[in-house]
From TrEMBL:
Placement of TPR repeats on the sequence: 86-119
Organism expressing this protein natively: Mytilus galloprovincialis (Mediterranean mussel)
InterPro entries from the UniProt entry: TPR-like_helical_dom_sf, TPR_rpt
Keywords: TPR repeat
Name of the molecule in the record: Tetratricopeptide repeat protein
Lineage top rank: taxon: Eukaryota
Amino acid sequence: MPHAFDVVFSPNDIYCVPIPVGYECSVTQLNLKEKYYDSIRFHPCVYAQFLLCFGYHKIGNQKEFQNFLEQLQSTVEDMVNGYQRYRAYNLLGYCYYVSGNYQHAFSCFRESITIANSKMQNAAIYHLCILLMCILTEMKELSLNKAVVKFSHNVGN
């Protein structure tokens, strides 16, 4: 595409956007000084590929989800100095999170925090909290399952 425009959202669009974009709207609303002047922007290719990932994940088509996830990863990496690039990493990290690839999700959110302007609030913090809670829950369930197996094995003997 030789000419393209950013996909732009207002912080007030929180109720009509996919979950990770809603997080971006939420943190933008927290910035009281710039609340009504700040906008959430995504490169059109990043946003289109994210929507395809999001949609294919929702309908359970893992093959197409993985295909577009790879494309999204490549596009985000190619956007070296893109405006609000950290938000592209948040979308990519969310896609890795829903795929169960927590290590890649963590890397994306960490990169988002690293490249974001320190004065801006970043939804990556929320994503990391959710990711860590999910990991802790899975670890707890795994520990409980091991305890139940051990208990039932001991009771059977």
